[in-house]
Automatic annotation (TrEMBL):
Protein name, UniProt field: LRC45 protein
Coiled coil ranges: 211-569
Subcellular location, record wording: Cytoplasm, Cytoskeleton, Microtubule organizing center, Centrosome
Record key words, sorted: Coiled coil, Cytoplasm, Cytoskeleton
Main location: cytoplasm
Domain of life: Eukaryota
Pfam families referenced in this protein's UniProt entry, alphabetically: LRR_6
SUPFAM superfamilies the record matches: RNI-like
GO cellular component: centrosome; plasma membrane
Species classification: Eukaryota, Metazoa, Chordata, Craniata, Vertebrata
PANTHER family associated with the record: LEUCINE-RICH REPEAT-CONTAINING PROTEIN 45 (PTHR23170:SF3), NY-REN-58 ANTIGEN (PTHR23170)
Length: 597
């Protein structure tokens, strides 16, 4: 019935706890249990109390093989199963291969000294077993203490592993969030830079269109000048009025020149201020980079100091190991002579080990606190760098807004100048029309003054030539202004590119710092692993040496028992000899002659 039940449970996926207490399972039941443990993946708790599985060695070995192949069982109860030291050895072999069992109850069996040693040795390779009950098995107290220490070590190791896993998850999440944020910020910067390029291209197009309009207006003015020259030739009487108008035009041109020179000076001053601001920003960035590099050097020095401390601790542990080997050799030599000395040395050795463990725990706590402080400082530095980057972005936005406002002001000034020129030209045309009316009325009077005013006409022509030359000079000045505008735009583009390059360099530095931080964290994790490995090796060595001490004590006890047995045998022999001698004396011929006498 048990075989059928267990075969049915091999393919079951819902049962998590199985209680078979007090069912008198035999070889067939043990083999079925081994098969169940190999195939089932859902049972987490198995109770087999009061079943005498240890009596059937073959079936129990098959059960242990199934336990070794299982990777899902967490609790096993084997109380009162008559398990001897051989069964405990098979259980130890199974526990070396098992990686899921956490609790096992072996109370009230016949494990003995050899079985306790086998279970203690298996705990060196098994790192998952947390609880092992061995009461009522005739196991020495030294082995029980060693088993408890190994189980405590397994619990500490699992807690440390869980903490490290949680920390690594949190750190990985933070790193991913930082990467995503920086990627978003970089994309935003690229978008803003592309928008600025588009705005600069639009402004350049608008400026070229405006320059073309100005050129067309100048061409129109030249055509008007030519028409005025023809009208001057046609109208000789209006020369005096034309001279006044020419003087007025000269004054307006001088005013325009002055305005252009003032505008050029303003642009130059603004460019110088922008250059100075760029130089100041570069200086600040270099200072910040130098400060960050110094902080990285300090962190590296701290890591080197930590590595040196770890090496010193390793040397100390090596010296402690050498001392332990020397003491064990002395104990082996002096074990036969005096048990009291061994106990005293054991106590001293245990006290020194406890002191060393306390010191090691204090150093580990101090190292963890130092590492947490360094991580906090690094996080604060990252936040400061991000704040600096945000400030730089705000300054860039301010500079762009200022440039846009300046462009808008320049465009408004150009529009105002154009409107003023158009109004003046309209006024001049109206005056000229009025003058033509007056000239038609004064033709008769001008014919008499024709000869006199020929000379004046020649002078006016010379002045007109001068005006044409002056207009050519104005054209050249406009072309130079256009070139200056183009140069300024190119300088702005170069400055934007420089800012981009600087931001990319800052991003590269931040990424390098992040990689350095990851390297530091990896080094810290490696150091912690080394410390854990050293502590585990130290504990294993202590357990081995305590086992050797217990072996020596057992040998001493065995020898004392043999000596006492020999003494008893000798006393028995002496008593037998005495009895034999007394019987011989009583049975000798001297005995019967005495009564006859």
């Amino acid at each position: 019935g048990v075989k059928l039940l267990l075969n049915g449970l091999c393919s079951n996926t819902t049962v998590k706890s199985l209680d078979l207490k007090g069912n008198n399972l035999r070889i067939i039941g043990a083999e079925a249990l081994g098969k169940l443990l190999r195939q089932n993946q859902s049972i987490r708790s198995l109770i087999l109390e009061w079943n005498s599985l240890g009596v059937w060695e073959e079936g129990f070995s098959f059960f242990c093989q199934g336990l070794a192949a299982n990777s899902f069982l967490q609790r096993l109860d084997l109380r009162n199963n008559q398990i001897n030291h051989q069964g405990a050895g098979e259980l130890a072999v199974a526990l070396k291969q098992n990686a899921s069992l956490q609790e096992m109850d072996l109370r009230w069996n016949n494990i003995g000294l050899l079985g306790g040693r086998a279970l203690l040795n298996c705990l060196h390779s098994n790192k998952t077993l947390r609880k092992l009950e061995l009461a009522g098995n005739n196991v020495p107290s030294d082995i029980l203490k060693a088993v408890e220490q190994a189980l405590d070590h397994n619990q500490d190791r699992q807690t440390i592993l869980s903490e490290t896993h949680s920390r690594t998850r949190v750190l990985s999440k933070e790193v991913l969030s930082l990467k995503n944020e920086k990627a978003k910020q970089f994309l935003d910067l690229m978008d803003t830079i592309d928008k600025q390029r588009e705005e600069i291209a639009r402004s350049s197009r608008m400026s070229t269109a405006r320059v073309r309009q100005l050129q067309e207006a100048l061409d129109e003015q030249h055509s008007i000048m030519n028409s005025l020259k023809a009208k001057l030739q046609m109208t000789e009487a209006a020369l005096a009025l034309s001279e006044q108008k020419v003087h007025n035009l000269g004054e307006l041109l001088s005013a325009m020149k002055q305005e252009q020179t003032s505008v050029a000076e303003r642009h130059l001053k603004e460019l110088q201020q922008q250059k100075q601001e760029g130089v100041d920003r570069e200086g600040k960035l270099f200072r910040e980079l130098s400060a960050v590099s110094e902080k990285n050097l300090l962190l590296r020095n701290q890591v080197d100091e930590l590595e040196k401390k770890c090496k010193v601790q390793q040397d100390q542990l090596f010296q402690v190991k050498q001392d332990l080997t020397n003491t064990t050799a002395e104990l082996k030599l002096r074990a036969v002579q005096a048990e009291e000395r061994i106990e005293v040395e054991k106590r001293k050795f245990k006290q020194s080990l406890e002191d060393m463990e306390c010191l090691r725990l204090k150093e580990v706590d101090r190292m963890t606190q130092h590492v947490e402080a360094s991580e906090r400082s690094l996080q604060e530095r990252i936040q400061r760098l991000e704040a600096m980057r945000i400030a730089l972005e705000e300054e860039l936005s301010k500079v762009r807004a200022a440039a846009l406002t300046e462009r808008g002001q320049a465009e408004e000034e150009l529009i105002k100048v154009r409107n003023q020129a158009r109004l003046e030209e309209q006024q001049r045309l109206e005056h000229l029309q009025e003058k033509l009316r007056l000239m038609t009325e004064s033709r008769d009077e001008a014919q008499n003054c024709y000869l006199r005013q020929k000379q004046v006409v020649s002078e006016v022509q010379a002045k007109a030539n001068q005006l044409s030359l002056h207009a050519d000079g104005l054209r050249r000045q406009i072309e130079e202004l256009q070139q200056d505008l183009n140069i300024k735009e190119q300088e702005k583009v170069t400055e934007v590119n420089k800012v981009k390059v600087e931001l990319q360099e800052q991003i590269g530095h931040l990424q390098a710092e992040r990689t350095a931080q990851e390297g530091l964290r990896e080094k810290i994790a490696a150091l912690e692993r080394q410390l854990k490995a050293l502590s585990s090796n130290h504990r294993e060595a202590l357990l081995d040496k305590e086992g050797e001490i217990s072996m020596l004590l057992e040998r001493l006890r065995m020898k004392e028992a043999e000596i006492s047995r020999i003494r008893e045998e000798e006393a028995q022999r002496a008593s037998f000899l005495q009895n034999a001698i007394m019987a011989y004396v009583q049975g000798s011929p001297l005995g019967p002659h005495n009564p006859r006498k």
